[in-house]
Predict the structure.
Amino acid sequence: MAADAEAVISMAAGPVGKPLLGVAPLIGARPRAAVSEAAPIFRSEALSIRYGSYSAIKSISLEIPPRQVTAIIGPSGCGKSTLLRAMNRMNDFAPSVQVEGRLFFHGQDIYGVECDPVELRRRVGMVFQKPNPFPKSIFRNVAWGAAINGYRGNLAELVEQSLRKAALWDEVKDKLRKNALELSGGQQQRLCIARAVALQPEVLLMDEPCSALDPIATARIEDLIDQLKDQYTVVLVTHNMQQAARVSDRTAFLYMGELIEVDATSKIFTQPGNPRTQDYITGRFG
């Protein structure tokens, strides 16, 4: 795969061979500090987001612990995806968005003037509801983001490591030049996870990653999520109550833009502290 690696580097480089984007400075242009495992990786304070006159989330204060899977559940339109996308500022691309309150990543306000959104999105990866591979080879799908962000290690090794972490290597190792669009839906979603992992993030945001997949592919993604939390913080939006119960350590329940309850998943599903949570998880509404 040396030729593929050279081609990716060549396409990602500028006229003098430097990375197209270079290595973005960290948030606030500070070196990454060691963070206590007990400290939350994300913390919001009275976070509210509006699209024009519509309030999507209202005064949410929430902590996301590191190296765990946090599920965000709630009925359609309750603000789950808005909250998730706030964590890497994907909402910036929405028209008329207004953000109030504060959202901290490693103690730094990501909506503050010192935050570099590009670097934030490298450190906080995103996997969307529908698989969205590039119309390129499997190899280039995984290598491209790292190359344009200035990665100068061995791209072939990075691609293999990332595909292994996404539990896809054994299925595609002999066809890395194959167009990614020829993969099955489940394979495409795992490829998108590998593409995110190749950027060496700290957090993976997953917005209903199994909703478009069959039960077998869903089970593989769920197994993968359980493995990924050993190295990454995972925040998962899902409508599937059984999935949240199976894969998450903590669960946050949103309703009509408000955070109703957050606790250990085992407690949320057996002894919820709020009647609205009980009604939702037992199917009385939603």
